């Protein structure tokens, strides 16, 4: 009984598989970070990430509060795509330096940040104005 309870609580509330598609250019399997803990941890301590995977940070509740990203304890280079509340890319930061404490910001207001493997945005031609669509996979 004790094992069942532990397993239940480990998987209860686990996010469903989510896919983020950017126009007809790319599709990524993403984890969504919403809670304070998830937003702070992000992709820290990740040593490798599948080619078409990423993390979507949901900052809607912090809109207008000057949120910035950084690479503390992040071991892989990342591209950061800043998206407005309509899921349109408003800024792209390429190849963020691993382990850097430099603040990474967007000059435009944003609600979400998509982190993907460094160099992927340029490789796929992802740019300002591209529209993203988020859907739960079945």
Question: What's the topology here?
Answer:
Blueprint (H helix, E strand, L loop, with lengths): L1 H10 L6 E5 L3 E8 L2 H6 L11 E6 L19 E6 L5 E8 L15 E6 L2 H5 L7 E5 L2
Parallel strand pairs: 2-3
Antiparallel strand pairs: 1-2, 1-7, 3-6, 4-5, 4-6
From the structure above, extract its key features:
alpha+beta; disordered N terminus; globular; single chain; seven-stranded mixed β-sheet; Jelly Rolls; 138 residues
Beta-strand share of residues: 25-35%
Please tell me the CATH architecture by its name. Answer: Sandwich
Question: Helix and strand succession?
Answer: HEEHEEEEHE
The CATH superfamily appears as Protein of unknown function DUF192
Mean pLDDT: 89
Lateral arrangement of strands in the main beta sheet:
5-4-6-3-2-1-7
**Strands, total number:** 7
Task: Write a structural description.
The chain has 3 helices and 7 strands. The two termini are 30 Å apart.
In short:
With 138 residues, this protein is of the alpha+beta class. Helices cover 15% and strands 32% of the residues.
């Amino acid at each position: 009984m004790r094992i069942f309870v532990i397993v239940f609580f480990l998987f209860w509330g686990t996010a469903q598989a989510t896919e983020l598609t950017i126009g007809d250019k790319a599709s990524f399997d993403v984890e969504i970070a919403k809670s304070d803990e998830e937003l702070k941890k992000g992709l820290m301590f990740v040593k490798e990430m599948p080619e078409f995977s990423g993390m979507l940070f949901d900052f809607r509740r912090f809109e207008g509060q000057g949120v910035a990203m950084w690479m503390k304890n992040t071991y892989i280079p990342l591209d950061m795509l800043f998206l407005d509340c309509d899921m349109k890319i408003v800024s792209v930061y390429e190849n963020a330096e691993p382990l850097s404490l430099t603040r990474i910001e967007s000059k435009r207001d944003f609600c979400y940040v998509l982190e993907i493997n460094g160099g992927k945005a340029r490789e796929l031609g992802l740019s300002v104005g591209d529209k993203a669509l988020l859907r739960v996979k079945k």
